[in-house]
């Protein structure tokens, strides 16, 4: 930044106006996109409230430095779950393991710290939203153009990829580490075809594919902040878009209309950190609508703090109930992951950056001088996916003729030239005397559902989060299949001459040994969803039904919508970043269209 150039136009609680047309709560992945779209008309006034800072530094754009959920806390919120009844902790006991959840706390949210993966999922995913959840207008035909609206891909394919949007994504032409290419060849030999474009709407529900990443033409991270609310846009709209950072919404303000309808009239703001004596709480009125984009933990938290949620829980906490909405904070889902690990050559592993200082120094010089090298390489580059019913009892894909009956994958295997287990909490780690390589086996369609609850009426008090991993026994079946497929990939890679020694793998492939491993060597993948799910209010399939309708309006409340991953009817069988922005695009389209 030049010495006399204008900085990012951040606002404080004291400097914002008394009233706005729209208030967007949460400047994360979806919130940045929504604030951009709502502030496009010149005659509107939009307030974006974000609990974190802007924090735009050079390191925050370098993929390897910035892909860090477990960071120092300046850009993230860490929330620890309750002990998980079905997981085994470091002490070897079931029910002692906790899970640390991380979400972004910065403009751009989790898109500033994630693995930058851009995948949309197959059309059948969204067709199920419409047919099964009753979300009219959310089938593939209703959302595909919304993915394209924001996209600026490195290639243009009619109806598949666009180049007119703000959000850059691309794929790497070559794998950086040999192990990725070996995994592709192994998958192909097993009968899982190579998919040229992971975002093609016509590819089968089984195969292997290079991943797409939200990176720019210089291989730097291109988050929702960089795409939708960079400094030039924020400055050009500073008269109609106010970005209020380091601020939380403590609760929504409501009143009853003459007909008894609950109406949102504004928000109560406070400092992110309690004890900032120079910052006072204040109320801000809204003329049209408040939209919650605070994420799968923040959005239900704000609703419950405002008296909107499961009545019995709110009464227990001491909050006056204004709307009994049982699905608020229910139906929490995540893509549960299980790791198997191997030792490989150090030169073919990311671990070399940690254990060999000269390697890190060389790569740093390559980046600083030539803008190339390992620091710009995404950790995850490849996905192998299928439906577990297409695999036989040895994990071999011998039933792919049944793909017509199973249009969506339910397992994904992610090769990684690094450790993928949650070592600090599981105690399971690959020996680091050699290079490390792992397969993260991901459950794409979990049956288990958890909850988010308040611990106190204090908006800064920790939440009570229970992912309830493996609470539904049906989740073990596809995970066993994924582990067996991983071991078949290992076998093929070895047969091709790729040296990989078993390090952290199950004792055997018997169901009981696989189940024990699933309970031990697991982790979150940070894909939290569905705590304010969209659908019919009386949907008996899901606890409490739903929170928002197909227009993202909170059931029974006027002037309030939600637009983030919390509204997904269930966790989608894909990575959640791109669908979150699609939801924001859909929300903006409906609001500006008067729907």
UniProtKB/TrEMBL annotation:
Family matches, as Gene3D superfamilies: FAD/NAD(P)-binding domain (3.50.50.60), Glucose Oxidase, domain 3 (3.30.560.10)
Please list the coiled coil stretches: none
- What PROSITE patterns does this protein map onto? GMC_OXRED_2
- List the InterPro entries hit by this protein, alphabetically: FAD/NAD-bd_sf (IPR036188), GMC_OxRdtase (IPR012132), GMC_OxRdtase_N (IPR000172), GMC_OxRtase_C (IPR007867)
The coenzyme or cofactor needed here is: FAD
Keywords, A to Z, come to:
FAD, Flavoprotein
- GO MF: flavin adenine dinucleotide binding; oxidoreductase activity, acting on CH-OH group of donors
Instruction: Quote the SUPFAM superfamilies the UniProt record gives.
Output: FAD-linked reductases, C-terminal domain, FAD/NAD(P)-binding domain
- Residues that, per the record, bind FAD: 106, 110, 249
Active site annotation, chain numbering: 527 (proton donor), 575 (proton acceptor)
**In terms of domain of life, where is this protein from?**
Eukaryota
Q: Does the keyword Flavoprotein apply?
A: yes
Q: Does the keyword Flavoprotein belong to this entry?
A: yes
**What region holds the Glucose-methanol-choline oxidoreductase N-terminal domain?**
295-309
PANTHER family for this protein: GLUCOSE-METHANOL-CHOLINE GMC OXIDOREDUCTASE (PTHR11552), GLUCOSE-METHANOL-CHOLINE OXIDOREDUCTASE N-TERMINAL DOMAIN-CONTAINING PROTEIN (PTHR11552:SF219)
Q: Which family does it belong to?
A: Belongs to the GMC oxidoreductase family.
Q: What is this protein called?
A: GMC oxidoreductase
């Amino acid at each position: 930044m030049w010495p006399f150039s204008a900085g990012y136009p951040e606002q404080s609680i004291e400097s914002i106006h008394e009233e706005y047309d729209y208030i967007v709560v949460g400047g994360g992945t979806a919130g940045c996109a929504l604030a951009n779209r709502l502030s496009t008309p010149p005659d509107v006034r939009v307030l974006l409230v974000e609990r974190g800072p802007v924090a735009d530094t050079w390191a925050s754009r370098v993929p390897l430095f910035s892909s860090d959920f477990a960071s120092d806390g300046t850009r993230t919120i860490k929330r620890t779950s309750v002990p998980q009844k079905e997981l085994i902790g470091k002490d070897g006991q079931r029910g002692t393991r906790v899970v640390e959840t991380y979400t972004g706390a910065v403009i751009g949210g989790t898109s500033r710290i994630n693995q930058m993966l851009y995948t949309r999922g197959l059309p059948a995913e969204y067709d199920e939203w419409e047919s099964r959840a009753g979300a009219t207008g959310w089938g593939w035909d209703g959302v595909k153009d919304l993915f394209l609206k924001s996209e600026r891909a490195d290639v243009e394919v009619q109806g598949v990829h666009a180049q007119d949007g703000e959000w850059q994504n691309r794929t790497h032409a070559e794998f950086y580490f040999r192990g990725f290419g070996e995994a592709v060849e192994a998958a192909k030999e097993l009968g899982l075809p190579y998919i040229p474009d992971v975002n093609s709407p016509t590819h089968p529900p089984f195969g292997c594919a290079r991943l797409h990443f939200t990176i720019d033409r210089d291989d730097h991270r291109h988050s929702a902040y960089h795409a939708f609310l960079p400094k030039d846009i924020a400055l050009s709209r500073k008269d109609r878009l106010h970005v209020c950072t380091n601020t939380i919404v403590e609760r929504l303000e409501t009143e009853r209309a003459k007909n008894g309808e609950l109406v949102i009239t504004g928000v109560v703001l406070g400092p992110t950190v309690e004890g900032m004596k120079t910052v006072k709480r204040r109320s801000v009125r809204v003329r049209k609508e408040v939209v919650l984009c605070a994420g799968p933990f923040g959005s239900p938290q704000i609703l419950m703090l405002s008296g909107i949620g499961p009545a019995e829980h709110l009464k227990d906490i001491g909050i006056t109930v204004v709307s009994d909405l049982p699905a608020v904070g229910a139906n929490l889902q995540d893509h549960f992951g299980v790791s198997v690990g191997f030792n490989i050559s150090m030169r073919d592993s990311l671990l070399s950056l940690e254990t060999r200082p000269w390697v890190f120094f060389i790569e740093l010089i390559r980046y600083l001088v030539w803008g190339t090298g390992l620091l710009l390489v995404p950790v995850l580059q490849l996905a192998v996916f299928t439906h577990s019913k297409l695999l036989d009892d040895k994990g071999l894909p011998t039933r792919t003729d049944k793909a017509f009956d199973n249009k969506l994958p339910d397992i994904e295997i992610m090769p990684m030239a690094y450790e993928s287990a949650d070592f600090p909490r599981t105690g399971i780690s690959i020996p680091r005397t050699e290079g490390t390589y792992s397969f993260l086996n991901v459950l794409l369609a979990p049956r288990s559902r958890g909850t988010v609850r308040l611990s106190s009426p204090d908006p800064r008090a920790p939440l009570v989060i229970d992912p309830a991993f493996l609470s539904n026994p049906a989740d073990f079946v596809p995970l066993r299949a994924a582990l067996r497929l991983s071991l078949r990939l290992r076998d093929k890679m070895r047969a091709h001459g790729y040296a990989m020694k078993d390090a952290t793998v199950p004792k055997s492939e018997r169901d009981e040994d696989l189940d024990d491993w699933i309970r031990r060597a697991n982790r979150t993948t940070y894909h939290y969803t569905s705590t304010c799910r969209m659908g019919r209010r009386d949907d008996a399939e899901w606890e409490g039904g739903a929170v928002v309708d197909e227009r993202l309006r909170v059931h029974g409340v006027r002037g309030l919508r939600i637009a983030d991953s919390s509204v997904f009817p269930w966790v989608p069988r894909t990575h959640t970043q791109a669908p979150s922005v699609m939801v924001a695009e859909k929300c903006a389209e409906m609001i500006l269209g008067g729907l």
